[in-house]
Write a structure and sequence with these properties.
Layout: H1 24-33, H2 37-48, H3 58-76
Helix pairs in contact: 1-3
């Protein structure tokens, strides 16, 4: 049986771009409080292939925080 989509794919926004639960701000605050900022920046530079985390646009950093938030939620269950 053939099903049609009622929403166009253009309206779809992945959850890692706009997460529904844990705030990425809380996650970054927890990372900083645990003195893991240097490790966090190292992961960012490796994942996005940049030599310095400051080269990344703010949107990419937020996207990374959102992805990590979703991963932490998955492991927390």
């Amino acid at each position: 049986m053939h099903h049609t989509f009622h929403k166009s794919l253009g309206a779809y926004v992945p959850e890692h771009v706009t997460p529904t639960t844990m705030s990425s701000v809380k996650l970054k605050t927890a990372v900083d409080a645990a003195n893991l900022t240097e490790m966090w920046d190292m992961i960012l530079t490796l994942d996005y292939h940049v030599s310095n985390v400051n080269e990344l646009p703010h949107e990419r950093r937020d996207e990374f925080l959102n992805v990590m938030s979703l991963l932490l939620q998955a492991f927390d269950r």
